Amino acid sequence: MVNAYILIQTEVGKAASVAAEIAEIPGVASSEDVTGPYDVIVRAEAENVDELGQLVVAKVQNVSGITRTLTCPVVHL
Q: From which residue to which does any coiled coil extend (predicted)?
């Protein structure tokens, strides 16, 4: 299992609607609108790195109102 945090910047005024829409995507464990340099933080889960990439590129990035994403896979050192 691969876990990652996806940091998202949105268009002005879109954070809440983006977070709500992303929360409905299978593989998304949580989706919260936040303050700071990013507007939404998502925790995602996938079976492998390829599936995680598909989740981010094919599903998350297609949500209207997103301007930029940064995917941070969780590592266990």
A: none
Give the CATH number of the domain where residue 38 resides.
3.30.70.920
Contacts of 13-22 spanning 24+ positions with Cβ under 8 A? 14/39, 14/64, 14/65, 14/66, 15/39, 15/40, 17/65, 18/63, 18/64, 18/65, 18/66, 21/63, 21/64, 22/60, 22/63
Number of domains in the chain: 1
Q: Which domain holds residue 53?
A: 2-73
Record the tokens describing residue 55, joined without a space.
């989740």
Which tokens sit at 52? Answer: 């995680």
The tens-digit pLDDT sequence of the chain (77 residues) is 999 999 999 999 999 999 999 999 999 999 999 999 999 999 999 999 999 999 999 999 999 999 999 999 999 89
